[in-house]
Amino acid sequence: MPELPEVETIRRILEPQMVNQKITDIQVFNSQVIAYPEEELFCKELKGQVISNMTRRGKFLTVYFINGDRLVLHLRMTGQLLVMPADAEVEKHTHLILTLSGGNQIRYIDVRRFGRFWYIKSEETDTYTGQDKLGLEPFDEKLTAEYLKSKLSGRKKSIKEMLHDQSIVAGIGNIYSDEILYVAGIYPERKCLELDDREWIRLAEKIPEIMTWGIETNDMTPEEYLAGKGKEYQNMPNLKAYGQAGKSCVKCGTLMEKITVGGRSSTYCPACQSCD
DNA sequence: CTAGCTTCCTGATAGC
DNA sequence: TGCTATCAGGAAGCTA
Fold first, then answer.
1. What's A247's DSSP letter?
2. Predicted TM-score of the model (pTM)
3. What is the tens place of the pLDDT at every residue in A10-21?
4. Is A59 a known active-site residue?
5. pLDDT for A105-138, tens place per residue?
6. Is there a smaller number of Cβ atoms within 10 Å at the N or the C end of chain A?
7. Closest-lying nucleotide for A175 based on CA to C1'
8. Exposed/middle/buried for A246, CB within 10 Å: 0-12, 13-18, 19+?
9. Which of A25, A16, A69, A32 lies closest to A47 in space, CA to CA?
10. A76-108: buried (b, 16+ CB within 10 Å) or exposed (e) per residue?
11. Between the CA of A20 and the C1' of B8, what is the distance in angstroms?
């Protein structure tokens, strides 16, 4: 599931392949993925648009056009955004194809169809995507221990669950919350109420650190990205907590354990991640 | 305001 | 072998 580092990787790889390209044709195979406006208008607006750049906010991507309009998308669980030649085989679960003037196509493939697209005109305020409710980017200098404390210290929920709240810090999902809590030495089920100042400081430090590390270890060529169909990320083999249940902790050798926190699988080191 | 539950969707896996 | 049941999981929408 793409989280901030993966979405940023996708942006870095795809942006150069899209810039200055005109959208000459739109094919919709499953209109479910179009959240706004309705399909007919969505296609009408997109046709002929020229791409200027691509940005990321949290796990959202935005393709900006030279007239100021933009296409916002969220890949959710299984969304794949690929640029490939128009004559490549159209695989199963392809829901949307945008043909570019240069001969390539932007294709959206999504097994579970949770991902969504929004087309927003330059003069329109985005109240559709939920981006207006996002919290700080992990790299924002305003992300301090004080900020986290002010937002979370009164909450009964576990820190693992609150790291997933996009309105506090944008971009963290189930993989990177495990990684952050692992390096911060905090047990995933710890209630926010119980965290002390030193732990808030460690979190404020480790959130941007882990996100930067995620982006750097994902670094790959467009060819590698396409070969992995835009879903096999480079840093998966580097993860130290997520998916490591039953393996030895790389810091202390203790066997990593898996529990469920707020309905999400969580892996942690019983020795490194203290319960008090 | 917070918390808790449900919905979306299909491939993988477990159980019989 | 082949069937059915269960589950994962990001985020919104709903109720209490």
1. S
2. 0.95
3. 999 999 999 999
4. yes
5. 999 999 989 999 999 999 999 989 999 999 999 9
6. C
7. C9
8. exposed
9. A25
10. bebbbbbbbeeeeeeeebbbbbbbbeeebbbbb
11. 35
> Chain C positions under 7 Å from a protein CB?
8-12
Nearest to A271 by CA among A262, A257, A261: A257
The one catalytic residue among A2, A5, A138, A188: A2
Go through the domains of chain A in sequence order and give each one's CATH number. 4-133 (3.20.190.10), 145-268 (1.10.8.50)
Does the annotation count A2 as an active-site position?
yes
- Proximity of residue A142 CB to strand B below 7 A: no
Q: Which residue is nearest to nucleotide B4 (CA to C1')?
A: A262
Q: Which two tokens stand for residue A245?
A: 């249940």
Mark the nucleotides of strand B covered by protein, meaning any atom under 7 Å from a CB.
2-4, 6, 8-11
- d(CA A107, CA A30) in angstroms, rounded, equals 12
Contacts of A253 (CB under 8 A, 6+ apart): none
Question: Considering chain A, what is the average pLDDT of its residues?
Answer: 93
CA–CA distance, A90 with A94 (Å, rounded to integer): 7
Scanning every strand, the nucleotide with its C1' closest to A112's CA turns out to be: B9
